[in-house]
Every structure is written in C-alpha cells, then in structure tokens.
Write a structure and sequence with these properties.
This protein is an alpha+beta fold. It is built from eight helices and ten strands. Strand 3 and strand 4 form a beta hairpin.
Length: 345
C-alpha cells in the first residue's frame, strides 16, 4: 500500500485527463499543418506557374514539414505536460496520443478542401492544373473518392502518430541530457527544455519561409527564367455540345502502355460516363473522332460531340458558366493507372 501511494504521488499514471490534454495539444499540430499548407500554396502557386522546375523544391519543402511538424507536436506535448511526465514511456505515450488528432485534423480539413475544389472548379485554374499530377504524391490524403483513398488517410494518421512519438521521446531525452548532471532527475524541467523547443520552432519557421523567399528573390534577380508549366493533356470547349482533348506529349507519357488508349470519363468528379472509345460510349448520344479514343502519341487529339455533352454540365458557383467535368487516366506498363487530367471546361 505504501509503495502504491508513493508511486501515485510522484509518478501520476496515464489517465483520462492525460489523454484529453494530449489530444488537445494534437490540435495544435493539425492547425500548424493546415496553416503551413495554406501559406505554402499561396507562396508557391505563382512561382511554379512561372517556372515549373520549382515544383521539386516545393515538394521537398512540404515533405520535410509534414515530417517535422508532427514530431514538433509530440515534443510540445511533453513540454506542456511536463509535471505529469516522469518517465520516458509517458513521453512516448503523450506523443502518440497527440499525433492521433494531428493526423485526423489535418486529413479532415484537407480532404474537405480538395472535395470542395472538385465539386466547384471555377477559379483557381492554375492550382488545379499543377495539382492534377503533383497533389496525389504530396501527402497521400487526396480524397477524390473517400472510400477508395481511406487507406492512404489511415496511413498518414499512423505516420503522424509515429512521428509524434519519436518527437516526444527525442525531446525528453534531449531535455534530460541538456541539464546539468546534478539536476538530471526523471522528467522534463528547467530552461534547457524551453530552449530546445524554441530552437525547434525556429527551424520550422526557417524551413517554411526561406525556400519560397529564395525562389522569389531568384526570379526578381533574373537568376530563374520563365519556364512554362507543361500540360500533358489539355481540354477545350469548341462548343456547348463538344469537348476536344489534346495530347501535348512530355516525359510523363514514358511509362504508359503503348497499346492502351487513355481512359476518358465525362460528367462527374467522382467517376462519370465512360467515353474512352465509340464502343465504350455506345449508350451515349455522342460521336468520337477518332472512334478509337485519345492515343498516347504526342499530338493525338480526340473530339467528343453530341447532345449528351450539353446535358452533362453544371453551373460554376462563382462564375455562373456552364461547365463539364473531364477526367483522363492512363494505363502504365506496370498495370497501374495515373490521372493525367482532372478538371472542368
């Protein structure tokens, strides 16, 4: 009995309040990820449109931030809950629990944003064009189809939990060894811990600000020349009852199966009517030219015309224009499918 009393006094266990506080701190991490994403989109959009080569720096920066912010959240949870964390295992637990809400909160907000963009594709044309191919590899959380991509979301949440646990345990260890030898008692305390978290915050700010600022300065100084974004597949609207697709070529076509035409879906951001070929569109009142569909050879075109194209339209929320959703998917030599166009015209 005495031993239990002493343990409960000096080392409070993981209870409901411990879990609740850790989850609330996880919200801070999700907010940091959301803000970082929003700031990066605003900062990089115009830069990537000016010079397509800058997208690699953008992807690298986002990759670093999406790893480091959950780790920072785990460390922050350990610092804020220092009085309750007297063991290394408690630091890991606090990090893991905070990582749950960090991953869920960010995934939920980002998914709502992407799905909203898919359902109202007026405005933000350049954003859509750039992210048609880039966005799916940024975080794995793009939810065009919520059920189909749910495993990727769960993987990201699991990654967030793991990174937060690593951040919490690493911070606990650094805080312990940063203190003077005489004050190395179990737990997190002293100015050393505050300095470490401050250094981590400064590093995150530098990673968030310096890359786009350096790219902007390079453009202003003339060091980076204009390099237009290359659209592999483009769509235009010759008339209300017709859509024309053009294959502009490029390196992204190298992995495609040469014997398979592009898969074409018209009419819905969550699928649509199959108009890959005249045979596939047999149930629709449309004519395809050529009947075999859009080829993978650069310069190939496909015109889809007919009364049903006119009926498969919706009115854009902000512009009021009548638009039709178009999705183009390519089959790779490895049996995979890549989205080459996902927009509205």
């Amino acid at each position: 009995m005495k031993r239990q009393s002493k343990q409960s006094k000096g080392m409070p266990g993981i209870n409901a309040m411990f879990v609740l506080k850790s989850l609330l701190i996880g919200l801070i991490g999700s907010v940091l990820l959301i803000i970082s994403y929003a700031v990066m989109e605003l900062a990089w959009l115009g830069l990537i449109v000016y010079n397509e080569g800058l997208k690699n720096i953008y992807l690298l920066q986002w990759g670093l931030l999406i790893f480091l912010i959950p780790a920072f959240t785990g460390a922050l949870a350990v610092l804020i809950m220092a009085p309750q964390i007297k063991r290394y295992t408690y630091a890991i637990a606090a990090g893991m629990i905070s990582g749950i809400l960090t991953g869920i909160g960010f995934s939920a907000v980002l998914s709502l944003f992407v799905m909203t963009l898919n359902f109202s594709r007026s405005g933000m044309t350049e954003w859509q064009a750039i992210h048609d191919t880039l966005f799916p590899i940024l975080t794995g959380t793009m939810l065009i189809s919520l059920l189909d991509d749910l495993p990727y979301t769960l993987m990201f949440i699991l990654l967030s939990i793991m990174l937060s646990a690593v951040g919490g345990s690493a911070f606990y260890t650094m805080s312990y060894y940063a203190r003077a030898k005489k004050s190395r008692a179990p737990g997190v305390s002293g100015k050393a811990s505050t300095r470490i978290i401050a250094y981590m915050a400064i590093i995150l700010m530098i990673l968030a600000i310096i890359p786009p600022a350096a790219a902007f300065a390079g453009i202003q100084a003339g060091l980076l020349q204009k390099q237009g974004f290359h659209y592999t597949i483009t769509a235009q609207r010759p008339g209300d009852d017709s859509i024309m697709l053009t294959n502009n070529g490029g390196e992204k076509l190298n992995d495609l199966d040469p014997s398979s035409p592009f898969l074409i879906y018209i009419g819905s951001s969550l699928g649509g009517y199959d108009m890959t070929s005249q045979t596939a569109a047999a149930g629709m009142n449309v004519t395809l030219d050529p009947p075999g569909g859009l080829g993978i050879s650069p310069g190939s075109t496909l015109t889809i015309k007919g009364p049903d194209i006119k009926t498969l339209t919706y009115r854009g929320n902000s512009t009021g224009k009548r638009m039709t959703h178009v999705m183009v998917i390519g089959n790779t030599k490895d049996g995979l499918q890549l989205i080459y166009l996902d927009t509205s015209v």
